[in-house]
């Protein structure tokens, strides 16, 4: 194992691994640990395999170092220098520092993409199966597979991760620490700064204005923490600092919002009273002028403001997206619709309050959505008919048919008394024909397919379907091929289908014939039909094109 | 379903029914049969409104001669709108069942603010301004002036209505505020006046309490409603306060000053008119001689904002001679205002009876009782004569005349209190003269006398024997229904101590104690950490809320609270509070959860529902006693003790507990809902408090839940929440808290059998 050319970079004795004492060696390619007094290498990790190293926290009795490998395995080494804790720590730190310098050199350029794909495959069994069926059998190439067939999965990955909202307590989390000499130390992280900016756009504006031209970043934050703006229990007017304006901007914003009013009639307290008492009537004392007079009133206002702004910060993005979508639609008749909308919304809100869902019958409650009204139900159910002129009868014909039918039915009533509909002999005959073995039951197999097919074959059929459907869906998507790329793709997909036919379907059919001959045809009939339909389409298209 | 309630077929617009709804119908029918008043308590969220409407509408259709009209009074505009929607649903159900729309007209009456469709006037938000502007477009002399002067603006909708609105009848149907507006727009009729006109013959009228209880408005609006009416006061737990508010008047320096200005203006106008148009004043004098009830004068549009309650005697009498002449009347008013001014110049609190006040006024400025009584009517007449279009400017002097009339009319049940300063700011001189009504039965008496059945109902009326006393009426039926439940969907708990075993209480001696405030804070933080979605807290007063929030900020409670949920606080500015509420709902709906700090007796506690996830827990910090140092309250308590033999403490506790129940009841809005109710005060566990809670809360307040520490309460809540989070289906409810028609019928049959066996 050990090549002769290996250099020992560091050797640390008295290292315990899994209850065995030994020595830790840091070589130039790998990390090894040998049991004491023996020559065998018990642990050997190539640096390239090591993902990270961890050390035990300070103050712990055991001084340990752990290396974690890419495959998730980890090995823990316990430093047991007899010279005491200090020496153990020194040993450990030596190893740690050495590893720190070594590891980055060996850090394999992990193909991120590959890793991602790997992860995708392992997390989606259906995709993995498809991959096996299509790529491993070389029906489609790997690139094609990732570009086309797995696109929905990769896209899901690409989708923007949900924005992390703002915690309500982010300001509270900035705990001041006394630094011993009458000063306070605030620790802020980029996260907190982000939160502050998101929630208080006014502060962000100030920041952009002042940093770094007028103030350094730390000065800016120092001022921020000194300001009343941060200390919610102070009042504005007292100090004239950078953030006085921020507070005012926020206040104005809030005022504007309040003035626009509340559209939910159930919480709009100002509109609750139908008739208010005039000034001078009633027992209650006149309301003291509602200015944010006392400190605590101002504080309460700011708590409300804070919560509202936190909520707004998270809502902002969704709204802007939604608005962007809505704008073009409404452009025309905004002015007309608006009052109506409010009216309907209000009505819905009230309706939702007065309905007792448990009192309603279940059917009534479910019929909420808009109902579909169809002028021609058949067309909706069957899809567009190829030859619809057959349906149309001229009125004369129709009436004659109707008359005929009426005549017939009239005769039925007269001919048959309701008790005997069929003669006994005929009934027995019909029953016989309908029993297994009878003339009408020739195609019937006593055992259903499901019972006959062994589980593994069933599974295989399922996978075949899965792969074929995937291919077919892409194939059919190319039609009608309007652009050259589409045409190319159609050709390519056609080839892929052929390859699939030879690489997957044929072997399977052969296998079936060998193993369960009677069924072979039945099981793959439909698959073949699907394929043939596609081939047909393709050849038709080719013919038309070549003409 | 169609029910048989004591022989009456009732259409109920649902396929299932709660047992208590059926019981409620039975009791209500008995009251209707007996043509008497009744008092019914049924928990919120059990479909009270739809039950009431179904039964009364069925009764009305069955016995059209016994009950001609249903007058449904509710408290807030959203409540009214809800009632209208329920009514619509019910009548549509009738149509579906019978194939014919029932021959009923139901409509809402609301203030001009809500009903106006005039393009300019309706943009105003303040009710008073809308009234004033409307008046300046529709008063009779304005319209007369328009006849010869086209530049005088008038309201086309009112003109349209007066042209052909009164001849036609409204088609059968239910008209909510929006429907009325649409109806008005389609026909070019004013919805407000249309609605005021139609309520006289509509079968179902829905409006606010004030239209019936406030004599100033009732005189104008509801005077001609038929006697064979059923009047329903929904959410009526505060009805006594509404009555008192509508009959009380207070005057401060500012009002006096403005009234003086008004008088001066009036004097000038009268003098001008004396020169220009001598005849008009002469006419008025003649009319006053003949008596006040001159129909041609009292056009409906002129009579706004006037008329305090007047005994019928006054209306038939002629105005006394010494105030008939306009100049005389103005100097009379001047004297009266001067007198009030002197009364306000006091250094200490004065309290006296109306009789004493009248005597004093007689000796000091030689004003007798009789002309005082006519003050309000006389001023209204003068303002009409002077063609003053915008009455809002004259509200101070109108207020003064109302005061005069009230004092002179009622010698009992009122008190006069002059306070030189506010109790909270004893250094600032701010004298106020209160003429305060002490007897809530005065305002509601005409209603009880006039209408054959008055139903007072709410989710929280306990203890029920108090209402007949303070409203001075004799109900034929008095009943409280509980909520049948298939699972214990409410969890009332009394938390009496914090984790450190310090008793928590908002009583005066300990409320500022840091330990108590800290324990309240800890309780809230613990609850916030364990209860999902929305949490609502109620404090006893706004001042207390403020001081607690300040201490919580210092103690770091707010910080730890914000770690779990967003924090919203009710403020004294209602627009701001509405806004905060809107975001509170948004926060709950986005899944972040939120805490709302609010005040008992505040607007939030009275009108906003926190159903389902909006209120999974309600905390009541302390017992919401009314501010007991207020002299007006003291006077009222004395009066109650002397007149009705109600002990002060009984009334105070009753008042506090109904508000507490009202607050915690906000969280439960139906049987599929669930919520925790925490009463955080040691005093709640005493039996005198506990027993005054509504029955449906008491039932679930087991003895083991009445003396908990914070930690214990949170443990119980956790377990309970886990239980509540399980799926809850209709099948679980059926037969227990939800009945099909068959189940109901079999239940009835077995009951009858039992009775038969007993006999």
From TrEMBL, chain A:
Record family assignment: Belongs to the TFB1 family.
Localization, per the record, is:
Nucleus
Q: Does Nucleus count among this protein's keywords?
A: yes
Return the CDD domains for the record: PH_TFIIH
Q: Which Gene3D superfamilies match?
A: 6.10.140.1200, Pleckstrin-homology domain (PH domain)/Phosphotyrosine-binding domain (PTB) (2.30.29.30)
What's the superkingdom here? Eukaryota
Gene Ontology CC: transcription factor TFIIH core complex
Report what the protein is called: General transcription factor IIH subunit 1
Instruction: List where Low complexity composition bias occurs.
Output: 361-374
Chain's role:
Component of the general transcription and DNA repair factor IIH (TFIIH) core complex, which is involved in general and transcription-coupled nucleotide excision repair (NER) of damaged DNA and, when complexed to CAK, in RNA transcription by RNA polymerase II. In NER, TFIIH acts by opening DNA around the lesion to allow the excision of the damaged oligonucleotide and its replacement by a new DNA fragment. In transcription, TFIIH has an essential role in transcription initiation.
Which residue ranges have biased composition labelled Basic and acidic residues? 315-326, 335-344
Primary localisation category: nucleus
Q: Locate the BSD domain: which residues?
A: 102-146, 180-232
Region of interest: Disordered: 315-374
Organism, as annotated: Zophobas morio
The processes (GO biological process) annotated in the record are: DNA-templated transcription; nucleotide-excision repair
User: What Pfam families does its record include?
Assistant: BSD, PH_TFIIH
Q: What keywords does the record list, in alphabetical order?
A: DNA damage, DNA repair, Nucleus, Repeat, Transcription, Transcription regulation
């Amino acid at each position: 194992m050990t090549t002769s050319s290996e250099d020992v970079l560091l050797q640390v004795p008295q290292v315990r691994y899994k209850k065995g004492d030994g020595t830790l060696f840091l070589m130039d390619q790998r990390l090894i640990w040998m049991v004491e007094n023996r020559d065998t290498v018990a642990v050997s990790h190539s640096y390239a395999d090591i993902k990270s190293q961890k050390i035990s926290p300070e103050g712990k009795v055991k001084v340990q170092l752990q290396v974690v490998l890419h495959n998730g395995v980890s090995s823990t080494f316990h430093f047991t220098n007899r010279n005491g804790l200090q020496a153990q720590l020194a040993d450990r730190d030596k190893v740690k520092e050495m590893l720190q310098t070594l590891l980055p050199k060996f850090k394999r350029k992990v193909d991120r993409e590959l890793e991602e794909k790997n992860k995708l495959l392992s997390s989606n069994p259906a995709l993995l199966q498809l991959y096996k069926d299509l790529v491993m059998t070389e029906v489609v190439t790997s690139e094609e597979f990732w570009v086309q067939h797995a696109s929905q999965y990769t896209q899901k990955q690409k989708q923007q991760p949900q924005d992390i909202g703002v915690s309500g307590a982010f300001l509270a989390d900035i705990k001041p620490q006394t630094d011993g000499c009458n000063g306070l130390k605030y620790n802020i992280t980029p996260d907190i700064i982000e939160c502050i900016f998101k929630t208080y756009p006014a502060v962000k504006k100030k920041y952009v204005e002042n940093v770094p031209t007028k103030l350094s970043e730390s000065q800016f934050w120092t001022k921020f923490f000194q300001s009343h703006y941060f200390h919610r229990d102070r009042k504005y007017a007292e100090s004239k600092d950078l953030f006085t304006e921020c507070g005012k901007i926020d206040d104005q914003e809030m005022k504007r919002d309040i003035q626009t009013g509340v559209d939910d009639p159930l919480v709009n307290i100002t509109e609750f009273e139908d008739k208010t008492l005039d000034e001078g009537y009633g027992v209650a004392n006149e309301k003291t002028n509602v200015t944010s007079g006392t400190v605590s009133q101002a504080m309460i206002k700011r708590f409300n403001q804070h919560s509202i702004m936190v909520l707004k910060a998270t809502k902002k993005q969704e709204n802007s997206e939604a608005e962007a979508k809505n704008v073009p639609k409404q452009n025309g008749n905004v002015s007309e619709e608006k009052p109506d909308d409010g009216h309907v919304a209000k009505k819905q809100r009230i309706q939702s309050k007065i309905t007792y869902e448990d009192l309603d019958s279940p059917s009534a409650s479910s019929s909420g959505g808009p109902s579909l009204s169809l002028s021609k139900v058949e067309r909706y159910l069957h899809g567009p008919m190829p030859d619809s002129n057959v349906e149309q009868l001229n009125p004369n014909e129709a009436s004659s048919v109707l008359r005929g039918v009426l005549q017939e039915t009239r005769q039925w009533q007269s001919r048959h008394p309701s008790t005997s509909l069929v003669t006994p002999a005929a009934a027995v005959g019909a029953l016989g024909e309908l029993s297994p073995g009878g003339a009408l039951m020739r195609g019937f197999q006593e055992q259903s397919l499901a019972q006959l097919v062994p589980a593994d074959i069933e599974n295989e059929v399922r996978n075949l379907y899965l792969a074929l459907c995937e291919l077919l869906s892409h194939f059919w998507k190319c039609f009608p091929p309007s652009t050259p790329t589409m045409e190319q793709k159609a050709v390519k997909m056609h080839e892929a289908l052929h390859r699939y036919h030879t690489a997957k379907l044929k072997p399977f059919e052969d296998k079936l014939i060998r193993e369960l001959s009677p069924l072979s045809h039945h099981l793959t009939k439909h698959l073949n039909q699907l394929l043939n339909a596609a081939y047909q389409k393709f050849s038709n298209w080719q013919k038309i094109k070549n003409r | 379903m169609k029910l048989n309630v004591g022989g009456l077929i009732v259409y109920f617009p649902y396929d299932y029914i709660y047992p208590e709804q059926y019981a409620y119908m039975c009791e209500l029918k008995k009251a209707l049969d007996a043509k008497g008043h009744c008092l019914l308590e049924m928990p919120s969220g059990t479909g009270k409104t739809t039950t009431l409407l179904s039964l009364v509408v069925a009764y009305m259709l069955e016995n059209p001669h016994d009950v001609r009209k249903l007058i449904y009074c509710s408290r807030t505009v959203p409540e009214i709108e809800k009632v209208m929607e329920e009514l619509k649903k019910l009548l549509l159900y009738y149509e579906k069942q019978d194939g014919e729309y029932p021959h009923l007209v139901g409509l809402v009456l609301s203030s001009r603010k809500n009903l106006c469709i005039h393009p300019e006037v309706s943009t105003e938000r303040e009710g008073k301004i809308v009234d004033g502007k409307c008046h300046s477009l529709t008063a009779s002399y304005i319209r007369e002036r328009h006849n010869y002067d086209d530049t005088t603006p008038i309201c086309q909708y009112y003109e349209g209505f007066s042209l052909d609105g009164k001849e036609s009848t409204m088609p059968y149907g239910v008209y909510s505020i929006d429907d009325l507006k649409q109806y008005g727009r389609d026909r070019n009729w004013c919805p407000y006046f249309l609605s005021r006109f139609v309520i006289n013959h509509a079968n179902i009228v829905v409006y606010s309490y004030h239209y019936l209880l406030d004599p100033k408005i009732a005189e104008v609006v509801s005077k001609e409603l038929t006697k064979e009416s059923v009047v329903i006061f929904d959410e009526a737990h505060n009805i006594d306060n509404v009555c008192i508010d509508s009959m009380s008047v207070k005057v401060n320096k500012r009002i006096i000053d403005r009234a003086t200005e008004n008088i001066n203006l009036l004097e000038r106008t009268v003098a001008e008119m004396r020169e220009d148009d001598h005849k008009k004043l002469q006419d008025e004098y003649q009319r006053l001689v003949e008596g006040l009830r001159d129909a041609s004068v009292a056009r409906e549009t002129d009579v706004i904002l006037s008329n305090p309650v007047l005994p019928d005697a006054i209306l038939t009498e002629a105005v006394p001679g010494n105030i008939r002449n306009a100049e005389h009347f103005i100097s009379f008013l001047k004297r009266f205002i001067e007198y009030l001014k002197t009364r306000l110049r006091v250094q200490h609190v004065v309290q006296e009876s109306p009789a004493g006040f009248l005597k004093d006024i007689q000796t000091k400025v030689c004003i007798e009782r009789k002309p005082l009584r006519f003050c309000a009517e006389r001023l209204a007449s003068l303002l009409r004569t002077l063609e003053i279009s915008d009455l809002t400017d004259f509200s101070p002097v109108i207020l003064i005349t109302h005061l005069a009339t009230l004092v002179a009319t009622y010698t009992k049940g009122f008190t006069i209190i002059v306070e030189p300063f506010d109790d909270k700011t004893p250094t600032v001189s701010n004298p106020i003269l209160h003429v305060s009504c002490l007897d809530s039965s005065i305002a509601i008496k005409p209603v009880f006398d006039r209408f054959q059945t008055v139903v007072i109902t709410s989710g929280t009326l306990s203890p029920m024997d108090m209402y007949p006393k303070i409203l001075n009426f004799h109900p034929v039926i008095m009943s409280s229904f509980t909520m049948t439940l298939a699972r214990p969907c409410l969890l009332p708990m009394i938390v009496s101590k914090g984790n450190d075993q310090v008793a928590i209480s908002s009583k005066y001696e300990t409320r500022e104690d840091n330990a108590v405030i800290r324990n309240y804070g800890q309780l809230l933080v613990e609850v916030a950490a364990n209860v999902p979605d929305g949490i609502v807290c109620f404090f006893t007063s706004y001042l207390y809320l403020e001081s607690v929030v300040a201490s919580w900020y210092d103690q770091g409670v707010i910080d730890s609270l914000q770690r779990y949920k967003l924090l919203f606080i009710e403020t004294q500015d209602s627009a701001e509070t509405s806004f905060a509420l809107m975001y509170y709902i948004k926060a709950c709906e986005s899944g972040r959860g939120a805490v709302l700090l609010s005040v008992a007796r505040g607007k939030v506690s009275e009108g906003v529902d926190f159903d389902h996830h909006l209120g999974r827990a309600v905390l009541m910090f302390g017992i919401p006693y009314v501010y007991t140092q207020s002299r007006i309250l003291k006077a009222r308590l004395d009066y109650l003790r002397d007149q009705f033999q109600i002990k002060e403490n009984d009334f105070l506790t009753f008042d506090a507990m109904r508000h507490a129940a009202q607050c915690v009841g906000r969280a439960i809005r139906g049987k599929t809902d669930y919520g925790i109710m925490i009463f955080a005060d040691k005093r709640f566990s005493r039996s005198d408090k506990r027993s005054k809670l509504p029955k449906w809360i008491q039932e679930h307040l087991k003895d083991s839940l009445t003396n908990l520490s914070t930690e214990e309460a949170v443990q119980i809540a956790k377990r309970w929440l886990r239980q509540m989070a399980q799926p809850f289906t209709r099948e679980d409810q059926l037969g227990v808290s939800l009945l099909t028609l068959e189940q109901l019928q079999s239940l009835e049959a077995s009951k009858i059998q039992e009775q038969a066996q007993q006999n």
